């Protein structure tokens, strides 16, 4: 497979903070419909890697190509337009708007008019909201104020808001933190489903959950990749057991 077949190609990526390399000549390829989970001890550089891909942090060296377009130097909002979505741990939803409205304002053409909520709700947008609401298990909560949802439902709503923009790469940082076991099961189902037609990168610590969802696992340590492959192979790797799983 040539490098152009990947959704995301990260090559020799490095970022240093005051001389400390949080990411150190890291190379990583993600396939178009792949669900990749990144694991590793605290401080390994997992969040920094996602920050570099979405443009929140600037690289010191190396290259990040998404759909063959070089991202290095590109502003964060342009990366969003190119199809990169990022969910942080704390949901950033509009608590006083309904589920429907939260999804509606996330529809790409709504961006420019959002300030005033002077938004024309076309049938096309309504259909998109309905489809996403079904995906995120909130079809029967469309008119509920977002602030009244459970913690897990708020997390799903934020994923839904990202899905409204039809990202081709979705990155999620610990998506099941604070969720009930039922919500975790549903989130696994959701993530597997959304990776059917896009690349998904998840940072996760819960190994049972990782085993359930990952196509491939990347283990990071000290800004580098320690191991990569299917979960069972990675779990049995003595290097991984030594720095991470054995603790
Ligand atoms: P992880 O997500 O794997 O826990 P992080 O990516 O958050 O790790 O952090 C990797 C390392 O980089 C840590 O040592 C952290 O302190 C450092 N780091 C991250 N962001 C910054 C920053 N903006 N300035 C200085 N150091 C940072």
Blueprint (SSEs and pairs):
Blueprint: E1 8-17, E2 20-30, E3 35-39, H1 46-54, E4 61-66, E5 69-70, H2 76-82, E6 84-87, H3 99-104, H4 123-135, H5 151-163, E7 169-173, H6 181-194, E8 199-203, H7 207-213, E9 216-221, E10 224-229, H8 231-235, H9 238-245
The chain binds adenosine-5'-diphosphate.
Residues 17, 22, 40, 42-48 line the site of adenosine-5'-diphosphate.
Write a structural description.
- By secondary structure, this protein is α/β, with parallel strands linked by helices.
- It has a single domain, classed as Rossmann fold.
- It contains nine helices and ten strands.
- Residues 17, 22, 40, 42-48 line the site of adenosine-5'-diphosphate.
Keywords:
single chain; 247 residues; alpha/beta; Rossmann fold; six-stranded mixed beta sheet; four-stranded antiparallel beta sheet; 10 strands; binds adenosine-5'-diphosphate
CATH topological fold name? Rossmann fold
In whole angstroms, how far apart are the ends? 36 Å
Question: Would you tell me the overall average pLDDT?
Answer: 91
Placed side by side, the strands forming the largest sheet appear as 6-7-8-3-9-10
Largest sheet: 6 strands, mixed
Number of domains: 1
Q: Which class of secondary structure composition applies to the elements?
A: alpha/beta
Q: Determine and state the CATH class.
A: Alpha Beta
Radius of gyration: 18 Å
Unreliably modeled segments: 110-118
**Could you state the order of secondary-structure elements as H and E?**
EEEHEEHEHHHEHEHEEHH
CATH architecture: 3-Layer(aba) Sandwich
GO cellular component, one term: plasma membrane
Organism: Pseudorhodoferax soli
GO molecular function, one term: ATP hydrolysis activity
Keywords: ATP-binding, Cell membrane, Membrane, Nucleotide-binding, Transport
């Amino acid at each position: 497979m040539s490098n152009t077949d990947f959704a995301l190609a990260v090559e020799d990526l490095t970022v240093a903070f005051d001389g400390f390399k949080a990411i150190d000549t890291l190379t990583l390829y993600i396939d178009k419909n792949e669900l990749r989970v990144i694991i590793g001890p605290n401080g390994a550089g997992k969040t920094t890697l996602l920050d570099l891909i979405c443009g929140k942090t600037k690289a010191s060296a190396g290259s990040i190509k998404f759909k063959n377009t070089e991202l290095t130097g590109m502003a964060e909002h342009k990366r969003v337009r190119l199809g990169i979505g990022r969910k942080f741990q704390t949901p950033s939803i509009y608590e006083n708007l309904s589920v429907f409205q939260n999804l509606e304002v996330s529809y790409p053409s709504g961006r420019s008019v959002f300030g005033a909520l002077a938004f024309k709700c076309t049938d096309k947008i309504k259909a998109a909201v309905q489809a996403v609401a079904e995906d995120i298990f909130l079809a029967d909560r469309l008119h509920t104020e977002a602030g009244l949802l459970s913690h897990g439902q708020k997390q799903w709503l934020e994923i839904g808001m990202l899905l409204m923009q039809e990202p081709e790469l979705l990155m999620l940082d610990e998506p099941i933190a604070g969720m009930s076991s039922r919500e975790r099961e549903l989130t696994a189902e959701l993530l597997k489903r959304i990776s059917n037609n896009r690349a998904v990168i998840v940072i996760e610590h819960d190994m049972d959950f990782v085993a359930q969802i990952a196509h491939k696992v990347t283990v990071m340590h000290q800004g580098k990749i320690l191991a990569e492959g299917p979960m069972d192979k990675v779990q049995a790797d003595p290097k991984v057991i030594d720095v991470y799983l054995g603790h």
